[in-house]
Design a protein that fits this description.
6-stranded parallel beta sheet; 37% helix; Rossmann fold; formyl-coa transferase, domain 3; alpha/beta
Length: 414
């Protein structure tokens, strides 16, 4: 990494909890931003307790003398590179501390319901007054405006509101969450990070900050490919069709003889000709019922059945080798175990091993995207204890005396 990363010198104050807005801060931190995570005194962030615990509870003592468990795997991954402080945002003294920290911050991330920070004197008007160039990233279920702005929501709700869940699954069964209910959270985190970088660039040029407003459902709606345009132009509602896709066939998952699944994606006639050759049925490329995309869509069941039969008669490795020989886009449908064993994933360092003092070596996803001159990095896993960086931030950065810090701890402010 060069000079600490492309975002070296940028300070991010992360007031958010759980996932979407914190992921935004995490992404910025991977490229060198100094991220200060604000947690609730005594109990810490809720993500510490979400998912599987990384190890059994120990006898470490957190702020306020409470015994805290070792955090979840999820926390250790998604809070990576962050520093942790504790602050009671509901208390005027805590709010004053946040305003002082915001005065030197470049980005602030939050995901409370709209109006919450305003009630705590930490809204845009209050914070921009102390830092006019501040970029305030606000992720909420429905965004800062609109008739539903006050409603709560999580990833599953965002998938439903954004239209993706309706399309996911089989026509004779209920809609399913696409992959995991947290996909909308990660999407929102990525879109929010893009917004933060754009707003930072504007602030550099003009000295004026702004609000980046992301509704959790909005990135989901944004990735529906042509479904919105098609409905607007034709009135056609895309329905669930299982693991296939509406616009191309064969474009599906097929079960091999050994029980593993293979993904095949033929999105044009040229790719289908390659597939026909791999199947030993080159004549299919000239068959009027299969030669064109329109013809294959009209005969979807027959085309899918043909590919399913061929793959089903072979073990996955043999089928994949034959498809690869003809450059047919295809892959094993990988489990997490498969990802750990995959040579390409290893070569690209898509899974990192990070040393921790709490649970030993921890596996976690690598940094995306990959930059040639200023690559991102994982410097450490998520902070082990809430407020473990209180002394550095409140002492060195804000200049609070040890006596003042002790008083704030005693009152439950930090």
């Amino acid at each position: 990494m060069t000079d600490g990363g492309a975002l070296s010198g940028i300070t991010v104050l992360d007031l958010a909890t759980f996932l979407a807005a914190p992921v935004c801060a995490t992404l910025l931190g991977e490229f060198g931003a100094d991220v200060i995570k604000v947690e609730q005194p005594g109990v810490g962030d809720d993500l510490r307790r979400l998912g599987r615990a990384a190890a059994p509870q120990d006898d470490r003592t957190g702020g306020g003398g409470r015994h805290l468990p070792i955090p979840s795997f999820w926390w250790l991954v998604e809070a990576r590179n962050k520093k942790s402080i504790t602050c009671n945002l509901r208390d005027p003294e805590g709010q004053a501390l946040i305003r002082r920290l915001a005065a030197d911050a470049h980005v602030l991330t939050e995901n409370f319901r709209p109006g919450t920070l305003e009630r705590w004197n930490l809204g845009w008007e209050a914070l921009s007054a102390v830092r006019p160039s501040l970029v305030m990233v606000r992720v909420s279920a429905y965004g800062q405006t609109g008739p539903h702005r006050d409603r709560p929501g999580f990833g599953r709700i965002a998938g439903a509101v954004g239209g993706l869940s309706y399309m996911s699954g089989y026509p004779d069964r209920p809609p399913v969450s696409p992959g995991t209910p947290t996909v909308p959270d990660y999407l929102a985190g990525v879109f929010a990070a893009v917004g933060a970088l754009v707003a930072l660039r504007h602030a550099e040029r003009t000295g004026r900050g702004q609000v980046v407003d992301v509704g959790l459902y909005e990135p989901v709606l944004r990735i529906l490919d042509d479904a919105l345009a098609v409905y607007g132009g034709t009135g056609h509602v895309r329905e669930r069709i299982g693991s296939g896709t509406e616009s191309a066939v064969p474009h599906n998952h097929y079960r091999a003889r050994d029980g593993r699944f293979i993904a095949v994606a033929c999105t044009n006639d040229r790719m289908f000709a390659r597939l026909a050759k791999a199947l030993g049925r080159e004549e299919l490329a000239g068959d009027p019922t299969m030669a064109t995309t329109a013809a294959r869509l009209a005969h979807r069941e027959a085309v899918d059945a043909l590919v399913a039969q061929w793959i089903g008669a072979r073990d996955a490795d043999a089928a994949l080798a034959a498809l690869a020989a003809e450059e047919v886009p295809s892959s094993l449908v990988m489990s997490v175990r498969d990802l750990f064993e995959d040579a390409h994933v290893r070569a690209r360092e898509n899974i990192l091993s990070v040393a921790t003092s709490l649970v030993g070596t921890l596996a976690m996803p690598g940094v995306v995207p990959r930059l040639t001159h200023t690559p991102g990095a994982v410097r450490h896993a998520g902070p082990g204890s809430p407020g473990q960086d209180n002394e550095e931030i409140y002492g060195s950065r804000l200049g609070l005396s040890s006596a003042e810090r002790a008083r704030l701890r005693e009152k439950g402010i930090i």
